[in-house]
Design a protein that fits this description.
CATH superfamily of the largest domain: HAD superfamily/HAD-like
Shape: globular
Radius of gyration: 17 Å
Number of strands: 5
Strand content: 5-15%
Strand order of the largest sheet: 2-1-3-4-5
CATH architecture of the largest domain: 3-Layer(aba) Sandwich
Structural class: alpha/beta
Pfam families: HAD
CATH class of the largest domain: Alpha Beta
GO cellular component, one term: cytosol
Protein name: Phosphoglycolate phosphatase-like HAD superfamily hydrolase
Number of domains: 2
Largest sheet: 5 strands, parallel
CATH topology of the largest domain: Rossmann fold
GO molecular function: phosphoglycolate phosphatase activity
Keywords: Hydrolase
Order of helices and strands: EHHHHHHEHHEHEHEH
Number of helices: 11
Length: about 240
């Protein structure tokens, strides 16, 4: 790909490409801190659109774990989540398939010359399993992506994408030709913080609520042609 005129699409994962499901975090938190699954309490805020490490610490505390113990368990959580995801691959394939149009949208963007990666709060190991099992990893360059183990605060992740893009392609990422596709208000805020364009998909949050956060566009679903034309319009490509 020619770096000087490259356009980049940066996908969120949970809620955008595949349905969000907290069962994996629930199991990993329970094992990490020795809590029964049914006793896990997720905080009302700071879940959707946040990083796994942030969610895990907040969830452990909300579930009765002392804050210092919750923080000390983060490193073990990484190991436990890897086991949980590996053990759950068949269940993941059965219960959490990709949203309709997800693969076709990624494939069509690839055909039109867009580089693509992910920016997700998932730890890399979880994101890789989810994308591979759902059949979405073929055209995604995860080597330039950003994950929840790159930074605990999501707003720091765009800089990771920018740095990895420059390292791979030998040119600075043009923010005017970069589009985030996400589904949560924090996805929108994160993209805006970085100066990226942003498209919101109303998979689980109503369009009216997403409109309050002023994304560049809102899609009701991942229709291949609509995704490509919307991205192209924002990046002046095609």
């Amino acid at each position: 790909m020619s770096g000087a005129f490259a356009s980049l699409v940066v996908w969120d994962v949970d809620g955008t490409l595949i349905p969000a499901d907290l069962r994996w975090l629930r199991r990993a938190v329970a094992r990490t801190y020795g809590i029964q699954d049914e006793s896990i309490v997720f905080p009302k805020a700071r879940v959707h659109g946040y990083t796994d490490e942030s969610i895990v610490v907040d969830t452990a505390v909300a579930s009765g774990v002392q804050p210092d113990v919750a923080e000390d368990g983060v490193e073990r959580f990484h190991e436990v989540l890897a086991d949980v995801m590996s053990e759950g691959e068949e269940e993941l394939a059965r219960d959490q398939p990709a949203y309709p149009g997800a693969f076709d949208s990624i494939a069509s963007l690839h055909e039109h010359g867009f580089a693509q990666t992910v920016l997700t709060g998932n730890l890399r190991v979880a994101a890789e399993v989810k994308l591979r099992v759902s059949g979405l990893d073929q055209y995604l360059d995860l080597g330039i992506g950003a994950f929840g183990d790159d930074a605990r605060e999501r707003f720091e992740l765009p800089a990771v994408v920018t740095e990895r893009f420059a390292e791979k392609f030998g040119t600075k990422l043009d923010v005017s030709r970069t589009v985030v596709i996400g589904d949560a208000p924090n996805d929108i805020a994160c993209a805006r913080h970085a100066g990226f364009h942003v498209i919101a998909v109303a998979h689980r949050i109503p369009r009216a609520e997403l409109e309050q956060h002023s994304p560049d566009a809102i899609l009701d679903r991942l229709d291949r042609d609509t995704v490509v034309s919307t991205v192209a319009a924002l990046t002046d490509k095609i």
